[in-house]
Structure formats: C-alpha cells, structure tokens
C-alpha cells in the first residue's frame, strides 16, 4: 500500500475553508484525523477503501494541514459541524471514520444527524474525558502554549506511535511540523488542545448507527487500551478490535490489520443499506 497524490479540494465554511480530497466511487466514507495530525494519516488505507468500491473523502481539521487557520472556534463540536457540512456537500449518508479527537466529533454527528451516518468507525478514540485526567490535561495544555507548541508536539509525537512505526514516519513527522509552522496554525493547534469530550460522552446513548472501535494495544493515551475500547463498544452497542503492536494511530502503524477491520465493517454497513433500500 503506497501513498498516491490526489487534488486538494476546499469546503467553504464560516470564517474559513476546510481542506479535503476525494478518490474512488461508490457509497461515501469520510475520514477525519486526530488533533495535531494530517489527513495523510490515512494514506495507507484510503486507496484500498476506494479500490474496494467506496468514495473516500479525507479532510484536514480546522487549522491543520491545508485547512485555513482563520476560524473563531476549534475542537470537537466545530469539527462535527464541518463533517456534517462535508457529508451534505458530497451527498451522504457516510460511513464516518474518526481518529483520536475526531472520533468524538463523529459521535456528535451520528447523534445529531443520524440520517447522515450509515456507520461509525472510531480509531484510537477519545469520546470522553479521561477519568482523573484533569491534572494531565492541564500539564499538556501548558506545554502546548506558544512558542513551544510546535517543537514540543514534534518531540511528543513519536511516543504516540508506540509499537510499530510507519516506514515513512520521519517524513510524516516532518510534514506535521511543517504544517504547524504555517501562519496561524500553531495558535489554531493550541486552541484545539483545549477541547473537551464531555459532549460526545453525553450523546453516546443517542447513537443508532452501527459502530466499530479499533484500538492499538499499546495506545499510550489510555491506561488500559483494551478496557477503553470495550467500554466504548458497549456504550455504542458496537464491536471492538484491538490491533497488536500499535499505538494511537493504528491506521498508519498497522494499516493491513486496520484495513481488514474497516473493510469487514464497511461491507456489513453496505449490505445493511442495500437490504434497507
């Protein structure tokens, strides 16, 4: 699985534009990355999903990658609003795939606009604030203040890739840092770090779409990744897959195992949609 170049498109939103790309044809899949990451985090799985008969749209978060850093607000709920706008623009419903922070945003979309979501796949997901994590969050946010945000994040990023690292990790890490050096991007990133996942947690019981949770067994963001994956899966009446030798980004660290889980889940979503048609 190799990365391929696709044109960058832009979705106009109040106060700025969200960058995305599209490949393939068929039912819609929307891929959203985590905070501090780029849409290319899906570089190994997006082409395969397109080859399997899906229209695959990958979007950068506000202030990240090729998206504008001119927005007034950042975080879970604004990202959910952007995902809703993108799905409407491309013609939903969509299978929504969210990694890390954007998993919480995907939950908000599914709860508030169920007609737009055919399924949820949550990778290394934050859908609630970690119990007892207030002190850690405050320390993290303190470290992520300007002018330290970019060098601290570049230094911190390898720890989130606990386990196997992508073959192009050094290049990817450099591209992440370069994107954060764009005008306004570091400030947007800092503001994104202040998001809370309380809203997504409050909406978990309103989600009706089928759900898949994919968690790396070495994800350092959770004291017990397996337990967190199981808790989220129960809350969504979904299923959990734990990927060996992967940290917070299973889609990039173990793309084949992650892709197997996504394709199996996606085919079930597509079959359910066909039966309901």
Kindly describe this structure.
The protein has 277 residues and is α/β, with parallel strands linked by helices. It has a single domain (9-276), classed as Alpha/Beta hydrolase fold, catalytic domain (Rossmann fold, 3-Layer(aba) Sandwich). 43% of the residues lie in helices and 17% in strands. The chain has eleven helices and eight strands. A hairpin with a 2-residue loop joins strand 1 (9-13) and strand 2 (16-23). Helix 2 packs across helix 3 and helix 5 (149-160) packs antiparallel against helix 6. It is globular and about 55 Å long. The mean pLDDT is 92.
SSE arrangement, N to C = EEEHEHEHEHHHHHEHEHH
User: What's the CATH topology name?
Assistant: Rossmann fold
Strand fraction: 15-25%
* Secondary-structure class: alpha/beta
Q: Strands of the biggest beta sheet: in what spatial order?
A: 1-2-4-3-5-6-7-8
- What is the helix fraction of residues, given as a range? 40-55%
CATH class term: Alpha Beta
The shape, in one word, is: globular
Compute the gyration radius: what is it?
17 Å
Count of runs of 4 or more consecutive helical residues: 11
**Strand segment tally:** 8
> What is the end-to-end distance?
33 Å
Tally of structural domains: 1
What topology emerges from the helices and strands here?
Blueprint: E1 9-13, E2 16-23, E3 28-32, H1 46-51, E4 55-59, H2 76-90, E5 94-99, H3 101-112, E6 117-123, H4 134-143, H5 149-160, H6 169-180, H7 185-192, H8 198-203, E7 211-216, H9 225-235, E8 239-243, H10 250-253, H11 255-276
Parallel strand pairs: 3-4, 3-5, 5-6, 6-7, 7-8
Antiparallel strand pairs: 1-2, 2-4
